[in-house]
Amino acid sequence: MRVIDFVNRYAAETLLLESEGSSVVAGELTNSFSNAKNFVNRSVLIATSRIEEAIHAICRLDGWVKAIGFCPHNFRSSEIDRIAKQGGFDAILGEGAGDVPRFPDCNSLVRFLWDSTGECESHSTSWVMMTSGTTGTPKLVLHSLKTLTSTTKISKQGMQGVRWGMLYDYTRFAGMQVVLQSLLSGAVLVAPDLTDSIQDQLQFLAANGTTHLSTTPTMWRKILMTPCHEQLSLKVATLGGEIADQAILDALKRSYPDARIIHIYASTEAGVGFSVKDGVAGFPESYVTAVNDKMKLRVVDERLEVFNPDVGKNYLGSHQNVSDEEGWVATGDLVEQANGRFFFQGRANGTINVGGNKVMPETVEAALIRHPNVALSRVYAKKNPFSGSLVVADIVLARKVDDEPTLKQAILESLKSHLEPFQIPVKLKIVDSIETTTAGKIVRNGP
Fold first, then answer.
1. In whole angstroms, what is the distance from residue 193 CA to residue 197 CA?
2. SS in 3 state form for 337-351?
3. What pLDDT does residue 261 have?
4. Series of mean pLDDT values for 10-residue runs along the chain (447 residues)
5. 266 and 323 in contact (C-beta within 8 Å)?
6. Which of 93, 283, 410, 437 is 20 to 30 A away from residue 260, measured at CA?
């Protein structure tokens, strides 16, 4: 089925999107193919900042074009062109497309990179998602509507009263998950302007009755630091993209006692892995031994691997493999087994080498956040000629204090009961904020 086939199930007046300055109802999306001939047999890269335009484009293009790809609109035009060439896209939709035809019923422009002709025919459209690029140039992963919606809850009558808040960039894997969950289930997608302050975004979500909200643990910590977070009345709060430690799970339960707290494991390469609903960090050992033809897990040398036969085997436009010959994706996530569960330790490529000892930044960050006056933390390496690297950390305080040097010393003292000496930062820096990516994750590059 195509996205539009799901939308066609709803009454024309069904509200599907509420964003700042605009809204979209189902009836606006159902007449979708009057200009299909302009796009048939093409591969279209969507790079618009306006989520309502992206939704129009998805409904008009899915099932008729060869491929739909998504690229953040704030990329430089040369970078967008590079992505288009790498992915074999022959049309770009977005503000950077130049003085060219407009997309039907939207304000965005379309730039056709070369001619493509053919009779109007239906396609099984490929969906191309970009990796975050936090460790280098973003890669392109081939998906389908099936792989993107394998865990989506769908109701033919629509989900009355469900309103999904949108704090992710829709061009990212997690963001597209939320978009499709709303479109395919008939829920309302509530999308604040992501360039606004976190307080303004939360006030918009609250004013529009958001009931379900998904974002990263880092963004949840920022939300809980903002006084107006209490205005939200949530039924479901989900976490993904980073380690969901026990502290943030407990904090969410305290703030939203009536909400189901769910942490989700997924990645652009592996697709949707699994969800954990028991309120405990990590995941049960039984997830690894469970028999599932569509999705399997295994742990090799303390590294989590995922088997998903529906995800593309190679990065698009590259000979580099997404998975091995058997279909296993090496996620790069380190896990530790204890007390009947596996607990995430961090990313293998983020390890800090301190005199031959391995330090996971996420482990130190979790220990820092245990202190009642630390709201956010970021740990990174500082080069050292003797030990290779030293551990340093930036912290955001939960509240201001008059004597910062004394507080920093107290925080370092508190770490001694949780960490080995080589894991303790040699320097703490108090900062006003910690930078996050468009995917809501902590920016891991050092200063």
1. 9
2. EECCEEEEEEEHHHC
3. 97
4. 90 92 88 62 90 92 91 87 91 76 74 64 83 72 88 68 94 93 93 94 97 96 94 96 94 96 91 90 90 80 88 82 87 94 93 93 95 95 87 95 94 94 96 88 77
5. no
6. 437
How much is the pLDDT for 311? 75
User: Where would I find the beta strands (DSSP E) of 348-426?
Assistant: 352-354, 357-359, 374-384, 388-397
Side chain identity at residue 192, one-letter code: P
Residue identified by tokens 């990179």 is 113
Q: Is 186 exposed, middle or buried (0-12, 13-18, 19+ CB in 10 A)?
A: buried
SS (H, E, C) 148-185: HCCCCCCCCCCCCCCEEEECCCCCCHHHHHHHHHHHHH
Q: What is the pTM of this model?
A: 0.90
Q: Please give the Cα distance from 141 to 129 (Å, whole number).
A: 5
* Residue 264, helix vs strand vs coil: strand
CA separation for the pair 117, 106 (Å, rounded): 23
Exposure string (b/e) for 33-68, b if CB count within 10 Å is 16 or more?
Answer: beebeebbbbbbbbbbbbbbbbbbbbbbbbbbbbbb
- CA–CA gap between residue 174 and residue 37 (Å, rounded): 31
Query: How many angstroms separate the Cα of 140 from the Cα of each of 129, 174, 189, 216, 346?
Result: 6, 15, 26, 22, 23
